[in-house]
UniProtKB/TrEMBL annotation:
Stated name of the protein: PRC-barrel domain-containing protein
Domain of life according to the entry: Bacteria
InterPro entries in alphabetical order: PRC-brl_dom, PRC_barrel-like_sf
Taxonomy of the source species: Bacteria, Bacillati, Bacillota, Clostridia, Eubacteriales
Residue span(s) of domain PRC-barrel: 10-62, 98-160
One Pfam family of this chain: PRC
Transmembrane segments: none
Signal sequence residues: none
C-alpha cells in the first residue's frame, strides 16, 4: 500500500531516508529514480549508503511500501540488491536517460524548453506530468501531460505537437531573431504561415545551431547558482563540493566529467 493515488514531485522523494519496517532501521537514502523510458515510469529507486560507489543498491519500485513526508519505507533490507545483481536496473542505468535538464522537442521540430521537474504516481511509479522552463522565458514554468510524451530520449524528450505546448508565431519570431537574419524573422511573423526565408547555412547546421543555443541558455541560467549537494566523479571522489557557486569553469568541469545533467539537478 502506498499513497492511494498521491502524486509526488521527485524533489519530495530524492534525499529521503529509506527505512526497513521489519528490521526497524535506516538502510540508506534515496539517491535517484531509475526511469523505464518505454513504459514512462519509475522502475527502481537508487539507494545510497556511506560508501556510495562501493555499495550502490537498488530497490524495485514494487517493493516500496510508502513514500511519506519524512521517509521511504520497504518491508525488509533483503529487498535491496546491488546494481550488478539486478540486470534490468543495470541496463536502464547504462542508457543514461535523465529527465531533469533534458530538452523538450516537439515532433514538429521545435525546441520549447528544458525539463525542471517531473511528478510520479506514488502507487504505480508512472510519470504523470513534467514541468519545463520555457525557451522564451526561463522564469516561466509550464506543464506537459505525460500522455503527450512520445519518447524519453538521451538527448531530448519528444512530445506530440499541440497548440497549447507549441510556441506561438510571435514567440517563434523572438526565438528566430536570435538564430537567423531579420529577413527570416519577417517571414515568421507575416500574416500567412509561410516558411522561414532560406538561410545561408544548411538545414543540419541550423539544427545544430538551435541545440547550441538552448545549451547556452542552460549554462546562462545556472551561472551564479549554488550546489545543494556534492557532485562526485566516476570513482567516488568529490568533483564539485556542495555550496560551490557555479561559474563557467565549474560548468566546463562538469561537462568534461559527464556530470552536467547532475549539476543542473543540484543547482539552486
Amino acid at each position: 500500500m502506498k499513497g492511494a493515488g498521491t502524486m509526488k514531485k521527485t524533489q519530495e522523494i530524492i534525499g529521503l531516508p529509506v527505512f526497513a519496517i521489519l528490521d526497524g532501521k535506516k538502510i540508506g537514502q534515496v539517491k535517484d529514480l531509475v526511469i523505464n523510458p518505454e513504459e514512462g515510469k519509475v522502475d527502481f529507486i537508487l539507494v545510497s549508503n556511506r560508501n556510495w560507489y562501493d555499495g550502490a543498491r537498488v530497490l524495485g519500485y514494487k517493493s516500496v511500501m510508502g513514500i511519506g513526508e519524512h521517509a521511504v519505507t520497504t518491508e525488509s533490507e533483503n529487498l535491496l540488491t546491488t546494481i550488478n545483481e539486478t540486470a534490468n536496473a543495470n541496463k536502464l542505468l547504462e542508457r543514461h536517460i535523465e529527465l531533469k535538464g533534458n530538452r523538450v522537442l516537439t515532433n514538429k521540430g521545435n525546441l520549447i524548453g528544458v525539463i525542471s521537474e517531473y511528478i510520479v504516481d506514488e502507487d504505480t511509479g508512472a510519470i504523470a506530468c513534467l514541468e519545463f522552463r520555457t525557451a522564451e522565458d526561463e522564469s516561466k514554468i509550464e506543464i506537459i501531460d505525460a500522455k503527450q510524451v512520445m519518447t524519453y530520449g538521451v538527448d531530448v524528450i519528444v512530445i506530440k505537437h499541440e497548440e497549447s505546448t507549441e510556441v506561438s508565431l510571435q514567440q517563434k519570431a523572438v526565438e528566430a531573431e536570435k538564430l537567423v537574419s531579420p529577413v527570416a524573422v519577417t517571414a515568421v511573423t507575416s500574416s500567412e504561415p509561410t516558411p522561414l526565408a532560406t538561410p545561408t547555412a544548411s538545414p543540419s547546421a541550423g539544427s545544430s545551431d538551435g541545440a547550441a543555443f538552448f545549451k547556452q541558455k542552460q549554462r546562462q541560467f545556472l551561472l551564479g547558482k549554488k550546489l545543494i549537494q556534492d557532485i562526485k566523479d566516476a570513482i567516488g571522489n568529490v568533483l564539485i563540493a556542495q555550496e560551490t557557486v557555479i561559474t563557467e569553469e565549474i560548468l566546463d568541469l562538469a561537462e568534461r566529467n559527464n556530470r552536467f545533467i547532475e549539476l543542473t539537478q543540484c543547482a539552486r
